[in-house]
Amino acid sequence: MCTFPDNFRVRGYGSFASVDELCTSNMAPRSVRIPSRLPILLVSGGVLLPGSSMRIPVHAPRNMQLVKNHVMKRNSLSSIIIGVAATTSKDPQTEDLAALHGIGTAAVVAQVTGTNWPKPAYTLLVTGLCRFRLDDFVQEKPYPIAHVTQLDKLPGDLTDVNDDELAALLDTFKEKASLLVDMLDITVPVVAKLKKMLDSLPSQHLPDVFASIVKATYKEKLQVLDAVGLRERFEKTLPLLIRQIEGLRLLQNSKEQGNKKSKKIPDVRIVVKPPGEGGRRPLRIVGDQDDDGEVDEITELENKIKQANLPAQALKVATRELKRLKKMPAAMPDHAVIRNYLELMAELPWSKSSPYQLDITHAREDLDADHYGLDKLKQRVMEYLAVRQLKNNLRGPILCFVGPPGVGKTSVGRSIAHILGREFHRISLGGVVDSSDIRGHRRTYIGSMPGRVVQGLRTVGTNNPLFLLDEVDKLGRSMQGDPASALLEVLDPEQNAHFTDHYLNVPFDLSQVIFIATANTTATIPPALLDRMEVISVPGYTQEEKHNIATRHLVPKQLKEHGLTGEELQFSEEGLKSIIGRYTREAGVRTLERRLGAVCRAVAVKVAEGLPKPKQHAVENKESKEEDKTDDVHAVDEDIKVPHVDHPPNLPIVIDNHAVKDILGVSQNYIC
Ligand SMILES: Nc1ncnc2c1ncn2[C@@H]1O[C@H](COP(=O)(O)OP(=O)(O)OP(=O)(O)O)[C@@H](O)[C@H]1O
């Protein structure tokens, strides 16, 4: 199985230089034999005809499953044939299989483009091979697979056709087709190719190819698809061709006369648009507006960027990218990439900060309220905060709390953010081996995304949060660059006002961000990084300290988390000691907190079991009401509410030595 990066483009069928090339390629239908079972891709609002290509954005859950399970799991796309069937259901999300059109088009998957970040979005480029009839479904979920019957078994070239009527129809069709091509701008490569194809393409393929490039309604295209017989197919397509020619004539006349209408059209050069995107506008005029929905989304993005208050340099880049996006068809793979980029630009907190808030007199109280002990750490934090208050915008040292797991390093960081009224975000650095994890990938790189710092800023939505760089001692190193040196750039007050993430490619001012690091040991912190930080050791706790932390912080916290109160559950002195001494073996208090949680859960069950049963529904039938009364003395009477309690526990439930053993089992420490 192959894995795909976050942004990718996989080509499978030949090597097409462009959509246009594909759209006029002559790879279909010839002597194709398709499998009798095909996975079915549902397309709403568009019809794929044999010999033409279509870009299909994948949104609906079933289509997404098909792409993930059938297409992406292959190493190569070259042999992937799927069925493309139009659904008459207006909402593709409903994916009603009954609404599928009975005739579909077998197609090869020529290209998959898309992105996995921030959410999966794929586009398939498919080329139609031949018609098939949908017989029945072998499976409907996660994506439909159907038994199909191949319909197109086209005869050889029609040059020596015996049917006079068909021969005449063919001549007229060819004449009109070449007339249409002559009216198009030959300097457009795809038109030149179409002209060439007109002579070389076997005549029987002409209706499908032309039906897919002329302007036609969804219904008309379905009629062409339904035309299994050759003559019928010519008959259905010829009027479309003639109508297109008439339309172009009108357009040209209006241009010549220089009337008002034509002035609105900046360039009457007519290009052939790939017959995709619902096949609604195969021929379009350059300068024509695209789908309303798409325009709306771009306008929305533009407004978002305006409101984001970008600095000059960022605004310049965003405006340039926005212009590119407007010119680009939505089906182009780069469209999603630019959009993601612009969305990030619009969402970054360029000028949004949390208001200044620091009350040093209450800071100590807040720290004490959240944590027991940790005097040295709290003292240093107070000094840090005091200097911050005296000299705002401190380019101070980066504090690094070093100590064993579970001693409160992260939670002290969270408290500091709270005291300062800043947003808190934790960046876990354990196992980071690639510098682009910190600094992002360049946008030219497939699967590119911003680094964790920029992602963090987007998440918190302010430009002055507190970032906790967790586990700096576990930073790795690899061929992809040294993440520690990237981190140096982030932390260096001289440089971080102009921090440039590779993906963002414009500087973002990190000088207002507070960084605090945590580590279990200093031994493995890269020396250059260690040099920038002020290490504060947080030693493990003694049994007594753990006892105090438990009674003051952990027990009340766990009671609250489990919906219990002190009147329902109490820990006896010896019970608590037993948990600390026999059921935990750690310097911190994380396991202790887990064990207390386990006890709370067990007690919560007992308390819930003893609660009054929920009131039964009033009995509608009077007779049955009478029966109920005789059967059960506790039966519900509207007037007398007697709680139905089986064995209400004696509250509070006190957890002593024995209760601890009952709930937590035999201690591992005993076994050792
Ligand atoms: N002194 C303390 N007072 C109150 N609660 C504490 C204290 N020390 C730790 N805790 C609690 O213990 C739990 C674990 O703490 P925390 O996650 O901050 O540990 P840590 O040192 O960051 O661990 P790690 O190194 O594994 O990230 C938290 O719920 C925290 O509130």
UniProtKB/TrEMBL annotation:
Q: Where is this region: Disordered?
A: 614-633
Instruction: Write out the biased-composition intervals (Basic and acidic residues).
Output: 617-633
* Pfam families in UniProt: AAA, Lon_lid, LON_substr_bdg
In the record, what terms sit under GO molecular function? ATP binding; ATP hydrolysis activity; ATP-dependent peptidase activity; serine-type endopeptidase activity
One biological process GO term for this chain?
Answer: proteolysis
Looking at the UniProt entry, the stretches that span the membrane are: none
Domain Lon N-terminal: residue ranges: 38-245
* InterPro entries for this protein: AAA+_ATPase, ATPase_AAA_core, Lon_lid, Lon_Prtase, Lon_prtase_N, Lon_prtase_N_sf, P-loop_NTPase, PUA-like_sf
Can the keyword Nucleotide-binding be found in this entry's annotation?
yes
Query: Sorted alphabetically, which keywords does the UniProt record give?
Result: ATP-binding, Cytoplasm, Hydrolase, Nucleotide-binding, Protease, Serine protease, Stress response
Q: What is the protein's given name?
A: LONP2 protein
Tell me which species this is from.
Branchiostoma lanceolatum
This chain is encoded by the gene named LONP2
